[in-house]
Amino acid sequence: MTVSASLLVTAVVLCAVGAILMLTRPLTRILLGAVILSNGVNLLILASTGTAGAAPLLYGVDLRRVTDPLPQAIALTAIVITLGTTAFLLAMAYRSHQITGTDEVHDDLEDRRIVLRAEVLSERAQLREEFRSGSEPTADERERYREERRRLRDRLRADRARQARGRDASGDLWNDVIGADPEDYERDGDAKADDRYPRDERGAAG
Amino acid sequence: MNALVPLPVLLPLCATGLSLTFGTRMQRFQRFISVAVLTAVLALSIILMIAADRQGPLSVHLGDFAPPLGITLVADRLSGLMLTVSSAVTLCVLIYSLGQGMTDRDKETPLAVFHPAYLILVAGVSCTFLAGDLVNLFVSFEIMLVASFVLLTLGGTGPRMRAGSTYVIISLFSSMVFLIAIAMTYAALGTVNFAQLAERLPGLPLGVQTLIQAMLITVFAIKAAVFPVAAWLPDSYPTAPAPVTAVFAGLLTKVGVYCMMRTETLLFPGNRIGDLLMAVALASMLIGILGAVAQTDLKRLLSFTLISHIGFMVFGIGLATREAYGGAIVYVVHHITVQTTLFLVAGLIERRGGTTELTRLGGLAKAAPILALLFFVPAMNLAGIPPLSGFIGKLGLMRAGVADGSTWAWILVAGSVVTSLLTLYVTAKVWNLAFWRAAPPGQAEAGTVLESGDDSDDDTDEGPDGVPGTGDEGIEPVHRPAGQAVAATLHGRAVTTTSRLPRPMMAATAATIALALSFTVFAGPLTAFTDRSAVELLKRTPYIEEVLGK
Predict the structure, then answer these.
(1) Do A14 and A59 belong to one domain?
(2) How far is C-alpha B75 from the geometric centre of its chain's CA atoms?
(3) Domain of residue A187, residue span
(4) Chain B (277-316) residues lying within 8 Å, Cβ to Cβ, of chain A
(5) How far apart, in whole angstroms, are the C-alpha atoms of residue B379 and residue B396?
(6) Which of A170, A174, A194, A201 to mutate: most B Cβ within 10 Å?
(7) How many CB pairs below 8 Å do chains A and B form together?
(8) How confident is the model at residue B489, as a pLDDT?
(9) Is A92's CB within 8 Å of B168's CB?
(10) Domains held by chain A: number
(11) B204 phi/psi in degrees, rounded to 5
(12) Number of structural domains, chain B?
């Protein structure tokens, strides 16, 4: 079997372009990538026919010299399926745009939450250790400690604000992520932000 | 008897047409069609399984086109068994979803789309199990995938679109890889029929064979969510409605495993990549279960255990002995059932507690003892506590590993033990957090807010944490529609909860548990059957002879 080199080169270039487009974030680009990639693949399927021959008709052609019709049937099936999937992706890009104002594919929020939680917990533990290792803390040190803790919490809140558009907000991320912190109730100022939550009320009472 | 082979695909497809035509007006009729057709498919599958066991593989060349021109459907022991288990599970999940009333009441999961999409999904899954050539396998994957796209993004809410986009893109990509593999196979051999491929592949240079094998394995590994290509699964499954997640988790990944089994035995005998498969199996097991340990959301946690336990089946395929295949088939059957059950229970927990976030749940063992039992049995089954079916599957695989005796086999046996222990740890964690500890104040409050509004006659004296399943759960012939569920907000999020769980949901969950328990009761016949399937798979000749008519 001989294969046309130009067909192969075209197919490979299309596949490469499609694959690169599929690696981007916006759904519309992914959609274009999928279309181009599938065109490349369909060319590959046609290339598997070998040398081109006569049209595969029942009458009027020499049946020994016709092109193999089976890859064409396979390619047709693939084209139809790609059409359906493309339509679905288009609808999805539009819906995504309706909801979030952008059609970008987002990171998985839960994964980010778990990473963030681990980071914040370790930073907080470190901070506490530093604060407690010395002798009696001065007012200045205490203020700095409080400031640091506030910064950590703000980081989580900022992240939540970024994510709020993409998910159904489930309350306070601070409590979502690490649960209520009893140390917050030792000082009046800090408890204010969290007293909407029943769990925290219990903490404050105890 | 051969004429029955296409019916598990045809019946759901015809029913889809009926369902779409009449569904919007006559919802009762639509439900009736779905249940009736899935019951019929189950009966057919059992008949096919028994027939394939007695007479050897059954095959049909559609339109009487001989291979390589036509489409071939083949039912052998393995396909028969997979068909039977999958149709039993899909029927249970359908009943569960009827109980949930997701088809018409819930705003997030609208209207008549669910039933047709679900039926198409069933047709796609059946078609995959029966497919006798690569192109038909590709087409059945696509049937299944397009239906799953619709089901996964039901309602088109923000989180579902996000989860759906990952899933759609990954599926599209794997389809393209599959098509390239088909093109290469056809260019090299001039056929895509499994039986003909099995005869002609040994004539190819080793490099070409390995290339085709590698591409096919990659495609099926993406479908099955084996470790290096599994990251899409926990992102996309948990956001869908509970019945959808349940059926996806139970069936779609196992379809990938089934295809691996089929191609590894029929097309590429000799197990050249056994070590590679065992390495990825080990990675899947350990990384999956460690991922599960880190999670605090029940559905995501279950998704990670799913990845982990796919590793067990790949382990069996990697060993490729008769005992290993026998064990792997038992494990597939067990895992389809138990994973579906666990996701159904997760749906019930969400119904009862308003969330699947474990840090917010608690006290369910006291508040809902039946629910606790429904969770406990499949959870122990997943961990492989004897005498449940998980133990039988794991025992079979480990014995095969020990009998094989190679270094990799021993490492994998050790890995399986560690994974089982960690699975036990994970399920114990869920049990402790959601069921055993006292209810956190937030949850009790949610119960009060979300108590059913119009339970007029028999429910007035029941407190918000009234125990379902005690007195008043007794005999009530009327189907309780899900409209009695009250939508409210819990921690700023819209949820639908009831203190009494709809009976069809409980019954369907109980039915899947009973199915899993029946694997224990009929362990002898089951393992004998899987053993015969493994023999048939490894022998290859019955399949090839049946299809090629020798």
Answers:
(1) yes
(2) 20
(3) 109-205
(4) 294-295, 297, 300
(5) 20
(6) A170
(7) 129
(8) 37
(9) yes
(10) 2
(11) -80, 155
(12) 1
| Long-range pairs, B388-391, Cβ under 8 A, ≥24 | B388/B516, B388/B517, B388/B520, B389/B330, B389/B333, B389/B334, B389/B337, B389/B338, B389/B516, B389/B517, B389/B519, B389/B520, B389/B523, B390/B334, B390/B335, B390/B338
- Does A26 lie at the interface with B, CB-CB under 8 angstroms? no
**DSSP state at residue A107:** P
A positions 139-198 inside 8 Å of B (CB):
165-171, 179, 197-198
> Between residues A133 and B430, which one has the greater pLDDT?
B430
pLDDT of residue B171: 92
Strand partners, B487: B496
Q: Does one domain contain both A123 and A164?
A: yes
pLDDT tens, residue by residue, B127-146: 999 999 999 999 999 999 99
Mean of pLDDT over chain A: 74
Domain termination residue (choose one: A51, A80, A100): A100
**A82 and A19 in a common domain:** yes
Report the CATH number at residue A25: 1.10.287
The reported pLDDT for the residue numbered B337 is 94
pLDDT bin (cut points 50, 70, 90) of residue A129 is: confident
d(CA B369, CA B498): 15
pLDDT bin (cut points 50, 70, 90) of residue A170 is: very low
Among A74-78, A122-126, B193-197, B410-414, which stretch is predicted with the lowest mean pLDDT? A122-126
**B493: in domain:** no
Closest CA to B243 of B398, B100, B454, B404: B100
B459 found inside a domain = no
What is the domain extent for residue B258? 2-439+500-548
Tell me which residues of chain B have a pLDDT lower than 70: 23-24, 101-112, 441-499, 550
The residue from A100, A117, A142 where one domain ends is A100
Length of chain A: 206
Q: Six-digit token pair at B146?
A: 């397009």
Record: contact B493-A170, CB cut-off 8 A: yes
| Residue among B156, B300, B491 minimizing CB distance to A95 | B156
- Min Cα separation A159/chain B (Å): 17
In a domain, B336, yes or no: yes
Determine, yes or no, domain membership for B467: no
Distance CA(A24)–CA(A27), nearest Å, equals 8
- At A16, is the pLDDT very low, low, confident or very high (cuts 50, 70, 90)? very high
Whether residue A120 is found in the same domain as residue A188: yes
Considering the domain architecture, whether residues A116 and A167 belong to the same structural domain is answered as yes
Is B515 within 8 Å of B89 (Cβ atoms)?
A: yes
